[in-house]
Amino acid sequence: MSITGKHSASVGQISAALAALAGEPAADRDGGRGPDGPREEDRLRLLGRLLARTELLITAATRLTEEGEVEDVLGTVQGWGEELGAEPGVAVNVLTNRLQRTALQVSGPQAEELPPGREAAFAAVMTAVYALSAQLHADRGDAEGTRHALSGAEEALIDTLQGMHDLRIAIGDAAGQEDAAGG
Fold first, then answer.
1. Which string of DSSP letters, residue by residue, matches 1-68?
2. What sign results for the dihedral spanned by CA atoms 123, 92, 5, 13?
3. Number of neighbours of residue 14 by Cβ within 10 angstroms
4. How far is CA 124 from CA 17, 94, 107, 138, 159, in A?
5. Of 7, 61, 64, 95, which has the maximum CB count within 10 A?
């Protein structure tokens, strides 16, 4: 699979895929769909809906036992890899895009200040984004880009640790408190 083409699926095809997965998009309250169905400017929103529908179907099909869940996740990863093919750059681009969406979803679009656990989760995801970016820059021989991405990863990692520490404080745990109680 290549991501070089502008659009490999039409808006109508995306809408039909949603309908086939029982996720027919309802008419927007604000008139975002035209009288003839979804428009080209609806493409990313529809792709997001299709992605969400697929993720919901995978979640519903995933067993909730530790052993079964791992097998199910491996099955979806295998299918994911088969669809992407052997081009590692595409896989990293897809992973980075997914991580960025995850970070935005964790932070919530209206959140002004996140609770410490969500702040830590957001920063952990961003650490992964920056680490992947650093490796891509290193693979290209771009030392300056690698340094910049590593700096972002380090800052995000510090934010992860700070968020975890803040959550401990919020629940009444102090650093070293476990050591004093146990020993």
1. --S-SS-SS-HHHHHHHHHHTT-PPPPPTT--SBTTB--GGGHHHHHHHHHHHHHHHHHHHS-SSHHH
2. negative
3. 21
4. 33, 18, 12, 21, 8
5. 95
Considering the entire predicted model, what is its pTM? 0.74
Q: Which tens digit of pLDDT belongs to each residue from 2-16?
A: 555 555 788 888 888
Q: How far apart are CA 13 and CA 19, in angstroms?
A: 10
What whole-number distance in Å separates Cα of residue 84 and Cα of residue 74?
A: 15
Q: pLDDT tens for residues 120-159?
A: 999 999 999 999 999 999 999 999 999 999 999 999 999 9
CB atoms within 10 A of CB 48: 11
The tokens for 93 are 């681009």
